[in-house]
Amino acid sequence: MVDGPVVTVRGEAYREVPPELARFAVTVTARDREREATLTRLAERAAAVRVRLDGEGAAIDRRETGELRVRPETRRGTERVVAWHGSVTTTVTVSDFTALGELMLRVAELDQVEIAGPWWSLRPDSPTYREVRHAAIADALARGREYAEALGARVTALVELADTGVERPMMARMAYAGGPEGGGGPELDLDPQPQSVQAAVQARFAISEPVLG
């Protein structure tokens, strides 16, 4: 319990910074009347993606195999299986954006491959989040002092500080369905999407007795 006047303010901060990571998804698919043939083709195509990614070496920070799906296609109104569909997705993360477009296109050249992305983001432990939180607290303190000054008083103590959250940036998406093509290789220049980070806090400050009038 606080005796005396209290000022409650909201502190905010906003930063727009370059992304630190880019992720894209590589999905290979297969379809055949026979389940075994579908699985064989899917495994071969997934292996081809692995070989292509292995060849990129240090250009890739991280890669993870995600969703594997195998499902039957049935004739309408019956349970008779007429074909089998399979897909497997690998997510690739890179931090060097200089050759990102070229890397994505090289992977998309493989048979029955779909590329989705890139999704731009900051690292989970990016110092930007800490900087924005500190700036939001500084803004709250500045506002509290301004209100106190307008009342002829001064801030004497922090009563309560609540973090209302850090707004993480949205991530853009594009898709490219690849496959073997003749002629020279295409070029793709990608512009990294700036990342907007916003933080807000609510603070309550005890102030000295106002001088009114």
Description:
The protein has 213 residues and is of the alpha+beta class. The protein has two domains: 1-18 and 124-169 and 194-213, Protein of unknown function (DUF541), domain 1 (Translation Initiation Factor IF3, 2-Layer Sandwich); 21-121, 2-Layer Sandwich (Alpha-Beta Plaits). 25% of the residues lie in helices and 42% in strands. The chain has three helices and eight strands; from the N terminus they run ββαββαβαβββ. It has helices at 35-54, 100-108, 127-150; strands spanning 6-17, 21-32, 62-74, 81-94, 113-121, 155-167, 175-178, 195-207. Strands 3-4-2-5-7 form a five-stranded antiparallel β-sheet. Strands 1-8-6 form a three-stranded antiparallel β-sheet. A hairpin with a 6-residue loop joins strand 3 (62-74) and strand 4. The longest helix has 24 residues, at 127-150. The two termini are 28 Å apart. The model is unreliable at 170-183 (pLDDT under 50). This is DUF541 domain-containing protein. It holds the Pfam family SIMPL.
